[in-house]
């Protein structure tokens, strides 16, 4: 069934009409589901966040009627998220992955006909070893003919903008060769992480290589947007890097775990009360969206975001890491609310 456009889809290409520098949250496995995206939208100031992405979704799954049922939850957009996307003018992109051009065509066509995302992003950057061994994502960096077929098949299957998220090499830095190839493809944007696949998340992201990609873009394909990604923890830093390295925008990933209120003016201080209220909101949104259809344990990775940097945080967080249900979590939060704010108990 056709969903209403999550981001207010336009006949024009948002990559070229949205005023930059563009700020966006990276697609992350078991992180950027519709519940967390709604939380981020609620915690962001207008004009500070432009683009969100779904979790990456398998084209093999989407291209098969049975598999489609198993993976379609990754493309879910709640009513609450949809309303905020439209209100704030934020775009939502479906990210997909795989290694078969025909499956990309089927998946992109299915997404285009049955949803209403603002764009499609092809994952050519995930560094996880079993994914790379599958011949997908970062593995495509060394498979130019296959990468070309995948992009061409995706482009032919939709009217939506197409972007690629990638890295600057597989086992070695190969920015010039790989970016020269991508800049000759029918793409609207390239999101470049400043590490090679071999590094995973280790070391420091090389923004000089990202700047090299910008220079190549200026020479070969001025209309393709280049977005930088890697080791950005604040809006100020994102803006500084956009100006210094010439990118059209910045994608923030792990920085959101340090501060889910990141897409706000830097001067705004987040109180302990607000941290706990945001934790409660996340529990509420996750339960409303998924109930018991996704594992409660997924939420544990988020607890450190909200429960840190105050007296008692270690014990509070330890207790939260032991809970296995929404009711248990709320009971622990209630106990700590009474302990931290006895006058309000």
Automatic annotation (TrEMBL):
<dbReference type="Pfam" id="PF01207">
    <property type="entry name" value="Dus"/>
</dbReference>
<comment type="function">
    <text>Catalyzes the synthesis of 5,6-dihydrouridine (D), a modified base found in the D-loop of most tRNAs, via the reduction of the C5-C6 double bond in target uridines.</text>
</comment>
<keyword id="KW-0819">tRNA processing</keyword>
<dbReference type="GO" id="GO:0000049">
    <property type="term" value="F:tRNA binding"/>
</dbReference>
<dbReference type="GO" id="GO:0017150">
    <property type="term" value="F:tRNA dihydrouridine synthase activity"/>
</dbReference>
<keyword id="KW-0820">tRNA-binding</keyword>
<keyword id="KW-0288">FMN</keyword>
<keyword id="KW-0521">NADP</keyword>
<dbReference type="InterPro" id="IPR013785">
    <property type="entry name" value="Aldolase_TIM"/>
</dbReference>
<feature type="binding site">
    <location>
        <position position="95"/>
    </location>
    <ligand>
        <name>FMN</name>
    </ligand>
</feature>
<dbReference type="InterPro" id="IPR001269">
    <property type="entry name" value="DUS_fam"/>
</dbReference>
<feature type="binding site">
    <location>
        <begin position="253"/>
        <end position="254"/>
    </location>
    <ligand>
        <name>FMN</name>
    </ligand>
</feature>
<keyword id="KW-0694">RNA-binding</keyword>
<feature type="binding site">
    <location>
        <position position="165"/>
    </location>
    <ligand>
        <name>FMN</name>
    </ligand>
</feature>
<protein>
    <recommendedName>
        <fullName>tRNA-dihydrouridine synthase</fullName>
        <ecNumber>1.3.1.-</ecNumber>
    </recommendedName>
</protein>
<keyword id="KW-0560">Oxidoreductase</keyword>
<feature type="binding site">
    <location>
        <position position="193"/>
    </location>
    <ligand>
        <name>FMN</name>
    </ligand>
</feature>
<feature type="domain" description="DUS-like FMN-binding">
    <location>
        <begin position="24"/>
        <end position="333"/>
    </location>
</feature>
<feature type="active site" description="Proton donor">
    <location>
        <position position="126"/>
    </location>
</feature>
<dbReference type="GO" id="GO:0050660">
    <property type="term" value="F:flavin adenine dinucleotide binding"/>
</dbReference>
<keyword id="KW-0547">Nucleotide-binding</keyword>
<comment type="similarity">
    <text>Belongs to the dus family.</text>
</comment>
<keyword id="KW-0285">Flavoprotein</keyword>
<dbReference type="InterPro" id="IPR024036">
    <property type="entry name" value="tRNA-dHydroUridine_Synthase_C"/>
</dbReference>
<dbReference type="InterPro" id="IPR035587">
    <property type="entry name" value="DUS-like_FMN-bd"/>
</dbReference>
């Amino acid at each position: 069934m056709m969903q209403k456009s999550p981001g207010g889809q336009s006949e024009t290409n948002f990559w070229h009409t949205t005023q930059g520098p563009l700020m966006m949250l990276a697609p992350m496995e078991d992180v950027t589901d519709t519940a967390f995206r709604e939380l981020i939208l609620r915690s962001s100031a207008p004009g500070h966040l432009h683009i969100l992405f779904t979790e990456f979704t398998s084209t093999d799954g989407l291209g098969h009627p049975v598999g489609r049922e198993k993976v379609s939850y990754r493309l879910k957009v709640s009513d609450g998220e949809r309303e905020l996307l439209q209100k704030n003018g934020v775009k939502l992109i479906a990210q997909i992955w795989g290694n078969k051009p025909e499956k990309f065509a089927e998946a992109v066509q299915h997404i285009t006909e049955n949803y209403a995302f603002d764009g499609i992003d092809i994952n050519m950057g995930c560094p996880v070893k079993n994914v790379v061994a599958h011949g997908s994502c970062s593995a495509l960096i060394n498979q130019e003919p296959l990468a070309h077929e995948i992009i061409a098949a995706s482009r032919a299957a939709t009217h939506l903008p197409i972007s690629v998220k990638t890295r600057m090499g597989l086992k070695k830095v190969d920015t010039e060769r790989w970016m020269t190839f991508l800049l000759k493809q029918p793409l609207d944007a390239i999101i470049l992480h400043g590490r090679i696949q071999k590094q995973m998340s280790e070391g420091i992201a090389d923004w000089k290589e990202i700047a090299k990609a910008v220079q190549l873009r200026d020479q070969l394909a001025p209309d393709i947007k280049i977005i930088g990604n890697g080791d950005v923890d604040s809006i100020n830093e994102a803006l500084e890097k956009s100006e210094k390295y010439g990118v059209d925008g910045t994608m923030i990933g792990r920085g959101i775990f340090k501060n889910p209120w990141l897409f706000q003016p830097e001067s705004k201080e987040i109180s302990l009360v607000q941290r706990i209220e945001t934790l409660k909101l996340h529990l509420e949104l996750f339960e409303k969206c998924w109930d018991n259809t996704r594992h409660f344990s997924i939420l544990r990775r988020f607890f450190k975001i909200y429960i840190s940097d105050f007296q008692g945080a270690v014990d509070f967080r330890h207790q939260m890491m032991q809970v296995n249900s929404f009711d248990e979590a709320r009971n622990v939060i209630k106990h700590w609310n009474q302990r931290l704010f006895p006058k309000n108990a």
